[in-house]
Amino acid sequence: MKFQLRDILEITGGELLLQTNTSGSFTVSADTRTVSPEEIFLPLVGAKFDGHDFIKTALDRGCRGYFIDKNHKNIVDSHAGAAKFVIGVDNTLESYLKLANANRRRINPIVIAVTGSSGKTTTKEMIFSVLSQQYKTHKSKLNHNNEIGLCQTLLNMPDDTEFLVIEMGMRGLGEIELLSKYAQPDMAVITNIGTAHIGRLGSMENIAKAKCEIVKYLNEEGVLISYNDELVGKTLSWNGKAIYYGLTNNVEIIKSDFNASQFVYKNNTYELNVSGEYNITNALAAIEIGKLTGVSSDNIAKGLAQYKPIENRWQILELINNIKIINDSYNANPDSMKASIDATISSYKNSKIVLVLGDMAELGEHEDNLHREIGIFLNDKKVFEVIAVGEKAKLITKTIENQEIKIKSFSKNDEVVEYLIDNIESNSVVLLKASRCMSFENIAEGLQKIGMDT
Fold first, then answer.
1. What is the pLDDT of residue 451?
2. Predicted confidence band at 334 (pLDDT cuts at 50, 70, 90)?
3. In 3-state terms, what secondary structure has residue 436?
4. Residue 21 lies in a domain
5. Angle between the 277-292 and 297-306 helix axes, to the nearest 10 degrees?
6. Residue 170 sits in which domain range?
7. 310 pLDDT band (50/70/90 cuts)?
8. pLDDT band at 76 (very low <50, low <70, confident <90, very high)
9. Count of CB atoms situated within 10 Å of the CB of 171
10. Which one of 265, 286, 306 terminates a domain?
11. I want to staple 325 with a disulfide (CB 3.0 to 4.6 A). Which of 36, 110, 129, 317 is the partner?
């Protein structure tokens, strides 16, 4: 969205600290790598960076003006020769959010916010695929689910947007409430409450509290769509309309194998081009959103059938000798790791299952026990081999008592690639699952040396 300078001052409550030429209209950029003369540079401040240090870079690239917060007003004079105007605000992130919210209110789409411990990106993508069958729909890119991502999503929204689907993540209490305040959702989705971020929040109860903040600024006439989770029911403070879903409610799974699923939900049949019960669960939220927004049953089914996983989420590589690599390594927590393992085993019953499991991050003081629990979980599973990568992942192997499961441990990804290239057997299915910090996409890339099945 382009703003007149007077509108920016009114929306943010800012003041002009320097002005020589304020004509024209402007968009806002927080990235000096892409800033242009038609943009105002907005320097954000984080725990390990300060965007104010890059004001000169923005000006060198042609930017005419910039924002500055109350703690940096002393540097205005140092850029006086290059800048045409400077806007002083109390807090640059808050100003960014206010500008984004102004565009949200101007376009006024129906806003759907999605959060949860896992599955939120997949659910967001499924909802988008369903809604876009009938409506002009905009969404958060990839997993741009923090304050900066929200601002970018709202400010880049096309003027004709009818529905907006936003993913909301968090690192602690209060963060989803902040996102909800500026997104002003009309519908809110909670996919589940799990152990992701337990290291930051300390308990499942606090995780539930953080996720349930999504209803704080939910439209009073809006709708909550939530997985039927006991912790949500105990924690939620919402008196409006609510819909709860789950695999035990009106769901019949017809098949979930290889790279496809088929199921019946409330007398309608749907298909997905991904397997796993957890993906069917995610699809239920998209179906409920579709029904609430008037999408026809045929278009809901069409939207789900057209959904495709993104960015290291259940991406399947077909190699020679009937070897398959399932790259589901974008991120991991104990719940999503167990779900991926179950989906792999149930989808490839006649294959040799090789699990390459890496460290799971942000589990805090619980991390050792939660890694050990994965090993216990594997004891009654039909698995050919478990390969642990990383110091914490080695704990998984310590609690595997099933003597039929081969066990290997490595410290580096390239060691895993070398081992598998030398030892992988035909008709094997290799699941890659770890937290993002483990960079398992490098393993997936390295294993392509085995040879793609053409």
1. 75
2. very high
3. helix
4. yes
5. 140
6. 108-306
7. confident
8. confident
9. 12
10. 306
11. 317
